[in-house]
Design a protein that fits this description.
- This protein is about 25% helix and about 30% strand.
- It has about 475 residues and is an alpha+beta fold.
- It has five domains: about 50 residues; about 80 residues; about 100 residues, no CATH class; about 90 residues, GMP Synthetase, Chain A, domain 3 (2-Layer Sandwich), CATH 3.30.300; about 90 residues, no CATH class.
- The strands form seven sheets. Strands 16-3-4-6-1-17 form a six-stranded antiparallel β-sheet. Strands 8-9-14-13-12 form a five-stranded mixed β-sheet, with no helix packed on it.
- α1 packs across α2 and α6 crosses α7.
- It is globular.
Length: about 475
């Protein structure tokens, strides 16, 4: 991390100690004893030590006030709040389930099967996926495909006394806990029979608007990190009066743990009475936890520059990268490639966890583009495409250091390269640096030297391409 200070001169222990000794000589010249056992000298040394420590902590606090040097995620969140930019909350993994009849008798086939909303499906490890809407298998139809997300539904009955002023927000808040999904929370006023509206900013809220937000608090709260609060307005931007009696419905997710391959989710809650069997036909993708410190640090300046509008390719990339479930976006328009049709924006998107976009996430991206886009929201204006995998086969000769076992070194190299090509490290439409690839292998414990036979130079991706690891051939040479 870049240090914005040149040095610690004149504020360290030695400089403070010498300065205090010079001051002592000027003020009390008769005290010429500089022995460390002298009481006065001992006090001066203690003062120099405390001054050194205070100077260090002053510098640390000062550095937390800048995006470039802040070490704590909550400091970045505070800075982002000043410009109305906040970290992404947890995103659920999404997939499609094929629900099939298990009873093929004629009487059973003539009956429709109703799968209620929020019906639960499970992986072998017990992780839960749910439907969001009721669905039906019509009579004489064997199966249907249903979209599901990895989430758990919660419903609470609360009163206005359950809301509290949390010192950080200085607004009325309610603690929802960890892993809350944005855009899926409802606050229902029982007495007024009125639903409050979830917003991503109070910027346009009036004093009486019944709006609320979901805010991430990254520091420990009651010993728990990444707590999500339901936050009301302050009486100037948004109403600050919670309903006397209300119901809160929200969803939580396990984030990246929900990403998995096809054919993994294969059991349904109370499936026997319904007479169905289930299986996910496509991989589950898009699951992620709250945005990390470094990803938020990199995204924050770009989002501020867009001013909540999409005009250039970089605008669209910054805005779409702000959508939960999106890992990376590469925007292409006619201004950068005349082969694309005029007035269209092509958006290559890689979801969290890699793979292809789920239709639900794709529709959400298009909906947000129509909201932000500068040139209008007519159909097909925004073309959202899956990232194009570009397979890179790696072939290397490796020299092993004395005392290291070959299987251990080989395992370390494979792990390092898998991390290098992981979706989280993906550079969509960018350059794969050969220097970085070389460092990924040469820095593995036990590697003495490495020779790359393939690739041998940096690689530039075409629009929408993302590099993925193909075959890996490691040969150990003496």
């Amino acid at each position: 991390m870049t240090n914005i200070y040149e040095d610690f001169t004149k504020r360290d222990f030695t400089s403070n100690y010498e300065r205090l000794l010079d001051l002592l000589t000027q003020e009390v010249p008769e005290l010429s004893d500089r022995n460390h056992s002298d009481a006065g000298i001992a006090l001066i040394r203690l003062l120099a030590r405390q001054t050194d420590m205070l100077s260090f902590y002053i510098d640390e606090v000062f550095m937390e006030g800048f995006v470039r040097t802040a070490k704590f995620r909550q400091s970045l969140i505070d800075l982002g709040t000043l410009v109305d930019c906040r970290p992404k909350l947890s995103a659920p993994a999404m997939t499609t389930m094929r629900i099939t009849r298990t009873n093929t008798h004629e009487d059973a086939l003539s009956q429709e099967i109703v799968i209620p909303a929020y019906h639960q499906f499970y992986r072998v490890d017990g992780l839960q996926y749910i439907t969001l809407d009721e669905c039906t298998i019509p009579p004489h139809q064997m199966s249907i495909d249903v979209d599901v997300i990895q989430a758990e539904r919660h419903q609470l009955s609360v009163t206005d006394h359950d809301f509290e002023h949390f010192a950080f927000y200085r607004r009325m808040t309610y603690n929802l806990g960890q892993g809350v999904i944005s855009g899926m929370t409802t606050l229902y006023d029982v007495d007024s029979e009125w639903y409050w509206t979830e917003v991503d900013s109070f910027f346009r809220s009036q004093a009486t608007d019944t709006h609320f937000m979901l805010e991430l608090y990254a520091d420990l709260y009651d010993g728990v990190p990444d707590t999500v609060f339901l936050v009301l307005g302050d009486g100037v931007f948004g109403s600050d009066k919670p309903p006397r009696s209300s119901e809160i419905v929200y969803f939580t997710t396990s984030g990246a743990d929900g990403n998995c391959g096809a054919g993994v989710i294969d059991s349904a809650y109370q499936s026997a009475p319904l007479g169905i069997s289930v299986i996910n036909t496509i991989p589950a993708t898009g699951g992620a936890g709250p945005e990390s410190t470094e990803r938020f640090r990199a995204r924050l300046p770009l989002v501020v520059q867009t001013q909540r509008r999409g005009f250039t390719e970089s605008d669209y990339e910054a805005l779409i990268n702000s959508i939960p479930g999106v890992l990376c976006c590469n925007a292409v328009s006619r201004s950068s490639d005349v082969s694309w049709p005029y007035m269209y924006i092509f958006l290559y998107v890689l979801p969290e966890g890699g793979g292809n976009l789920h239709p639900t996430l794709k529709n959400n991206i298009i909906r947000q583009c129509k909201r932000w886009g500068h040139f209008g929201d007519w159909d097909d204006r925004y073309v959202v495409l899956d990232a194009i995998p570009r397979v890179i086969d790696v072939k290397i000769n490796v020299g092993k250091k004395f005392g290291f076992q070959t299987p251990v070194v080989e395992s370390g190299i494979r792990t390092s390269l898998q991390q290098f090509f992981a979706p989280e490290s993906a550079l969509l439409g960018r350059v794969l640096s050969f220097d970085d690839l070389y460092k990924a292998v040469s820095s593995v414990a036990g590697v003495d030297w490495v020779q790359f036979l393939s690739p041998t130079t940096s690689l530039s991706a075409e629009p929408g391409e993302t590099f993925v690891l193909g075959s890996l051939d490691i040969a150990f040479r003496s």
